[in-house]
Specification:
4 helices; 9 strands; globular; 9-stranded mixed β-sheet; alpha+beta; single chain
């Protein structure tokens, strides 16, 4: 379990759990809002398959108290950077601060991993909700892209993401 002790707006504690025999079905069934399906898959099951088949990504269940509310995954690039990927918060759980707490938790945990100097993620430029979330947490667009997605980075120093040192985040 990974936690920063953060809560969503309903007061539920948001934690990240390894995907396991007890929660994988609930994670696989996580579905975005219909309007988001041009940016993410229809179900988190696709991300679980990427994690299990490619050996690059590590899937995590995003839980609000005891409820699986989403999926997020992470990986390490050959250049040593750590990536956040495949975040999908169930449509019924959106707008409650679960996604923000999940990203903050994973960012903090990854930043403390050996050799972490930068965190990266990507998002479609038309996905303004994702862009707002990530920039509010300190991610800034880089000159790089991945297909049609913007790559954003967050520098890490001394095991802390630079932007998370701000008390306002």
């Amino acid at each position: 379990m990974i936690t920063l002790g953060l809560h969503d707006r309903a007061g539920r504690r948001v934690v990240l759990h390894e995907v396991n025999d007890d929660n994988w079905r609930a994670v696989a069934d996580v579905a975005p809002l219909d309007s988001q399906r041009r940016y993410v898959p229809a179900l988190a099951a696709r991300y679980l398959l990427l994690s299990s088949r490619e050996g690059v990504w590590h899937s995590m269940a995003v839980c609000a108290d005891d409820t699986v509310a989403g999926h997020i995954m992470w990986g390490r690039d050959e250049d040593g950077s750590y990536w956040l990927g495949g975040m999908l918060i169930d449509g019924t759980e959106q707008g409650k601060g679960v996604g923000r707490a999940a990203v903050r938790t994973l960012v903090d945990w990854l930043a403390r991993r050996e050799g972490c100097q930068e965190l990266r993620l990507s998002y479609h430029p038309d996905n303004t909700a994702a862009e707002r979330l990530y920039t509010s947490l300190g991610f800034t667009p880089t000159a790089d892209s991945s297909g049609d997605e913007v790559i954003a980075g967050l520098p890490v120093s001394d095991g802390r993401p630079r932007a998370l040192n701000s008390p306002s985040l």
